[in-house]
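Look over this record as teaching material.
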Amino acid sequence: MRRACLDRIAEREPDVKAWAFIDPELALKQARAVDSSATKGALAGVPLGIKDIFDTFDMPTDMGSPIYRNNRTFADASSVALARRAGAVILGKTVTCEFAGLTPGITRNPRDLDHSPG
């Protein structure tokens, strides 16, 4: 299932441009860790994309801005930490408007590539 999700992202990403950062090997490593865990959380194995305004300790947080390109933080945002604790698999970071404001990102609507997702 997880490989199929990553394959679908890879297939559509050149057109949709939804991901600011994605690391398939890191996602699969997380998924294997969840699978081998003795305790399963409420989100065990659920793949998630994290908006690129939320810190993740293992991925860059650019906030949609060139001045924060490849910015690395030392801890997860609390919402990300809670999702991980519940067993979610963080696939990567999704594109956001700069600082979650008004400057649109490059993402296109997957149903109609001539429109933005908003």
